Amino acid sequence: MQKIRFSSKRIAISKANATIVAVVAGAAFITVFGVVASKSLLDQRSYQARVISGKEKAKRQLKDNLQAVEGLKLSYQEFVGSPINMLGGNPSGNGAKDGDNAKLVLDALPSEYDFPALATSLEKILTDKNYKIVGISGTDDQLAQHSAEDNFNPEPVAIPFEIAVSGSYGSMDSLVSVLQRSIRPIQIKTLIFSGADNDIRMTMTAESFYQPAKVLGIKSEVVR
Questions:
Q1: Which among 111, 133, 162, 177 counts the fewest CB atoms within 10 Å?
Q2: Residue 196 and residue 100 in contact, taking contact as beta carbons nearer than 8 Å
Q3: Tell me: the pLDDT tens digits for 175-201?
Q4: Which of these, 141, 123, 120, lies nearest to 132 by C-alpha position?
Q5: How many domains does the chain have?
Q6: Are 157 and 187 in the same domain?
Q7: What is the reported pTM?
Q8: CA–CA distance, 201 with 198 (Å, rounded to integer)
Protein backbone atom coordinates (compact mmCIF):
# COMPACT_ATOMS: atom_id res chain seq x y z
CA MET A 1 0.00 0.00 0.00
CA GLN A 2 1.27 3.45 -1.00
CA LYS A 3 1.64 5.85 1.87
CA ILE A 4 0.50 9.44 1.42
CA ARG A 5 3.03 11.90 2.65
CA PHE A 6 2.11 15.46 3.63
CA SER A 7 4.74 18.13 3.64
CA SER A 8 5.23 20.28 6.70
CA LYS A 9 4.34 23.39 4.66
CA ARG A 10 0.95 21.96 3.66
CA ILE A 11 0.20 20.96 7.24
CA ALA A 12 1.08 24.48 8.41
CA ILE A 13 -1.21 26.02 5.76
CA SER A 14 -4.07 23.76 6.80
CA LYS A 15 -3.57 24.71 10.43
CA ALA A 16 -3.43 28.39 9.49
CA ASN A 17 -6.66 28.07 7.48
CA ALA A 18 -8.36 26.35 10.39
CA THR A 19 -7.16 29.09 12.71
CA ILE A 20 -8.45 31.80 10.37
CA VAL A 21 -11.84 30.11 10.10
CA ALA A 22 -12.05 29.83 13.88
CA VAL A 23 -11.05 33.47 14.33
CA VAL A 24 -13.53 34.65 11.70
CA ALA A 25 -16.30 32.53 13.23
CA GLY A 26 -15.48 33.84 16.69
CA ALA A 27 -15.41 37.43 15.44
CA ALA A 28 -18.73 36.95 13.65
CA PHE A 29 -20.27 35.47 16.80
CA ILE A 30 -18.97 38.32 18.95
CA THR A 31 -20.23 40.89 16.40
CA VAL A 32 -23.72 39.34 16.19
CA PHE A 33 -23.90 38.97 19.96
CA GLY A 34 -22.84 42.61 20.37
CA VAL A 35 -25.47 43.83 17.92
CA VAL A 36 -28.23 41.77 19.58
CA ALA A 37 -27.15 42.80 23.07
CA SER A 38 -26.91 46.45 22.04
CA LYS A 39 -30.43 46.38 20.55
CA SER A 40 -31.77 44.69 23.68
CA LEU A 41 -30.13 47.31 25.89
CA LEU A 42 -31.45 50.15 23.72
CA ASP A 43 -34.96 48.68 23.80
CA GLN A 44 -34.77 48.29 27.57
CA ARG A 45 -33.52 51.85 27.94
CA SER A 46 -36.34 53.16 25.74
CA TYR A 47 -38.91 51.17 27.75
CA GLN A 48 -37.55 52.44 31.07
CA ALA A 49 -37.65 56.00 29.70
CA ARG A 50 -41.32 55.57 28.78
CA VAL A 51 -42.08 54.13 32.22
CA ILE A 52 -40.35 57.02 33.96
CA SER A 53 -42.13 59.54 31.72
CA GLY A 54 -45.51 57.92 32.47
CA LYS A 55 -44.84 57.95 36.21
CA GLU A 56 -43.82 61.60 36.13
CA LYS A 57 -46.95 62.51 34.17
CA ALA A 58 -49.17 60.64 36.66
CA LYS A 59 -47.34 62.28 39.56
CA ARG A 60 -47.91 65.77 38.11
CA GLN A 61 -51.58 65.01 37.50
CA LEU A 62 -52.03 63.71 41.03
CA LYS A 63 -50.35 66.82 42.44
CA ASP A 64 -52.65 69.07 40.38
CA ASN A 65 -55.70 67.09 41.51
CA LEU A 66 -54.76 67.36 45.17
CA GLN A 67 -54.33 71.11 44.81
CA ALA A 68 -57.71 71.39 43.05
CA VAL A 69 -59.48 69.46 45.83
CA GLU A 70 -59.11 72.25 48.35
CA GLY A 71 -60.45 74.85 45.94
CA LEU A 72 -63.36 72.59 45.05
CA LYS A 73 -64.22 72.04 48.71
CA LEU A 74 -64.24 75.77 49.41
CA SER A 75 -66.39 76.47 46.34
CA TYR A 76 -68.89 73.76 47.30
CA GLN A 77 -69.14 74.98 50.89
CA GLU A 78 -69.75 78.51 49.65
CA PHE A 79 -72.35 77.22 47.16
CA VAL A 80 -74.40 75.23 49.70
CA GLY A 81 -73.78 77.61 52.62
CA SER A 82 -75.47 80.63 51.06
CA PRO A 83 -78.05 82.15 53.49
CA ILE A 84 -80.53 82.45 50.60
CA ASN A 85 -80.67 79.80 47.89
CA MET A 86 -80.68 80.58 44.17
CA LEU A 87 -84.50 80.57 44.12
CA GLY A 88 -84.69 83.06 46.98
CA GLY A 89 -85.81 80.39 49.46
CA ASN A 90 -84.60 79.25 52.85
CA PRO A 91 -81.79 76.64 52.61
CA SER A 92 -83.04 74.90 55.76
CA GLY A 93 -86.77 75.22 55.02
CA ASN A 94 -89.27 72.72 53.61
CA GLY A 95 -91.19 74.93 51.17
CA ALA A 96 -91.40 74.55 47.39
CA LYS A 97 -88.45 76.94 46.91
CA ASP A 98 -86.52 75.92 50.03
CA GLY A 99 -83.45 73.71 50.36
CA ASP A 100 -79.75 74.30 49.86
CA ASN A 101 -78.42 74.92 46.37
CA ALA A 102 -76.98 71.41 45.99
CA LYS A 103 -80.42 69.89 46.64
CA LEU A 104 -82.04 72.29 44.17
CA VAL A 105 -79.55 71.34 41.46
CA LEU A 106 -80.15 67.63 42.03
CA ASP A 107 -83.91 68.18 41.99
CA ALA A 108 -83.63 70.18 38.77
CA LEU A 109 -81.38 67.72 36.95
CA PRO A 110 -81.29 64.34 38.73
CA SER A 111 -78.61 61.78 37.98
CA GLU A 112 -81.00 58.90 37.17
CA TYR A 113 -83.87 58.23 34.79
CA ASP A 114 -86.54 58.15 37.48
CA PHE A 115 -89.96 58.55 35.90
CA PRO A 116 -91.93 57.77 39.11
CA ALA A 117 -90.14 60.68 40.83
CA LEU A 118 -90.95 62.96 37.87
CA ALA A 119 -94.62 61.88 37.96
CA THR A 120 -94.77 62.61 41.70
CA SER A 121 -93.26 66.05 41.12
CA LEU A 122 -95.77 66.84 38.36
CA GLU A 123 -98.65 65.60 40.50
CA LYS A 124 -97.57 67.89 43.35
CA ILE A 125 -97.39 70.91 41.03
CA LEU A 126 -100.85 70.22 39.63
CA THR A 127 -102.39 69.48 43.03
CA ASP A 128 -100.93 72.60 44.65
CA LYS A 129 -102.51 74.72 41.89
CA ASN A 130 -105.87 72.90 42.25
CA TYR A 131 -105.88 71.37 38.78
CA LYS A 132 -108.02 68.32 38.14
CA ILE A 133 -105.67 65.60 36.99
CA VAL A 134 -107.03 63.35 34.26
CA GLY A 135 -103.82 61.40 33.81
CA ILE A 136 -100.02 61.42 33.91
CA SER A 137 -98.24 58.90 31.72
CA GLY A 138 -94.77 58.09 30.48
CA THR A 139 -92.26 55.25 30.18
CA ASP A 140 -90.20 53.98 33.08
CA ASP A 141 -87.14 53.25 30.95
CA GLN A 142 -84.54 53.31 33.72
CA LEU A 143 -82.87 49.97 32.98
CA ALA A 144 -82.41 50.64 29.26
CA GLN A 145 -81.16 54.16 29.89
CA HIS A 146 -78.73 52.97 32.56
CA SER A 147 -77.11 50.49 30.17
CA ALA A 148 -76.69 53.18 27.51
CA GLU A 149 -75.22 55.86 29.78
CA ASP A 150 -71.85 57.40 29.02
CA ASN A 151 -70.54 58.16 32.49
CA PHE A 152 -67.27 59.65 31.27
CA ASN A 153 -68.87 62.40 29.14
CA PRO A 154 -72.48 62.59 30.36
CA GLU A 155 -75.04 64.70 28.53
CA PRO A 156 -78.65 65.58 29.51
CA VAL A 157 -81.13 62.87 28.48
CA ALA A 158 -84.81 63.55 27.80
CA ILE A 159 -87.59 61.94 29.86
CA PRO A 160 -90.79 62.17 27.73
CA PHE A 161 -94.16 62.33 29.46
CA GLU A 162 -97.79 63.26 28.86
CA ILE A 163 -100.26 64.92 31.22
CA ALA A 164 -103.96 65.57 30.83
CA VAL A 165 -105.84 68.04 33.06
CA SER A 166 -109.26 69.70 32.99
CA GLY A 167 -110.53 73.10 34.09
CA SER A 168 -111.34 76.54 32.72
CA TYR A 169 -109.54 77.98 29.71
CA GLY A 170 -107.83 80.59 31.92
CA SER A 171 -106.48 77.92 34.23
CA MET A 172 -105.07 76.02 31.24
CA ASP A 173 -103.17 79.13 30.17
CA SER A 174 -101.80 79.53 33.69
CA LEU A 175 -100.66 75.90 33.80
CA VAL A 176 -98.19 76.46 30.96
CA SER A 177 -96.60 79.31 32.94
CA VAL A 178 -96.53 77.20 36.10
CA LEU A 179 -94.66 74.38 34.36
CA GLN A 180 -92.21 76.79 32.77
CA ARG A 181 -91.34 78.16 36.22
CA SER A 182 -90.78 74.68 37.62
CA ILE A 183 -87.32 73.97 39.02
CA ARG A 184 -87.15 70.95 36.73
CA PRO A 185 -86.54 71.90 33.08
CA ILE A 186 -89.69 71.09 31.10
CA GLN A 187 -89.85 71.44 27.33
CA ILE A 188 -93.42 71.45 25.98
CA LYS A 189 -93.86 69.66 22.65
CA THR A 190 -97.60 69.74 21.88
CA LEU A 191 -100.84 71.05 23.41
CA ILE A 192 -104.27 69.71 22.51
CA PHE A 193 -107.45 71.40 23.80
CA SER A 194 -110.96 70.01 23.78
CA GLY A 195 -114.30 70.80 25.50
CA ALA A 196 -116.26 73.97 26.31
CA ASP A 197 -115.33 77.25 28.08
CA ASN A 198 -115.46 76.11 31.71
CA ASP A 199 -114.70 72.47 31.03
CA ILE A 200 -111.56 72.48 28.95
CA ARG A 201 -109.39 69.40 28.76
CA MET A 202 -105.75 69.98 27.89
CA THR A 203 -103.44 67.15 26.86
CA MET A 204 -99.77 68.05 26.86
CA THR A 205 -96.79 66.09 25.59
CA ALA A 206 -93.49 67.32 26.96
CA GLU A 207 -90.15 66.16 28.28
CA SER A 208 -87.96 66.79 31.27
CA PHE A 209 -84.32 65.77 31.62
CA TYR A 210 -81.76 63.95 33.72
CA GLN A 211 -77.97 63.78 33.46
CA PRO A 212 -75.94 60.72 34.51
CA ALA A 213 -73.35 61.26 37.21
CA LYS A 214 -69.84 61.70 35.83
CA VAL A 215 -67.27 59.02 36.60
CA LEU A 216 -63.78 60.27 37.44
CA GLY A 217 -62.20 57.66 35.20
CA ILE A 218 -59.23 56.64 37.35
CA LYS A 219 -57.44 53.85 35.50
CA SER A 220 -54.16 52.02 35.05
CA GLU A 221 -52.06 52.37 31.91
CA VAL A 222 -49.80 49.66 30.55
CA VAL A 223 -46.50 50.99 29.17
CA ARG A 224 -45.36 49.09 26.10
A1: 177
A2: no
A3: 888 888 888 889 999 999 888 777 888
A4: 123
A5: 3
A6: yes
A7: 0.58
A8: 10
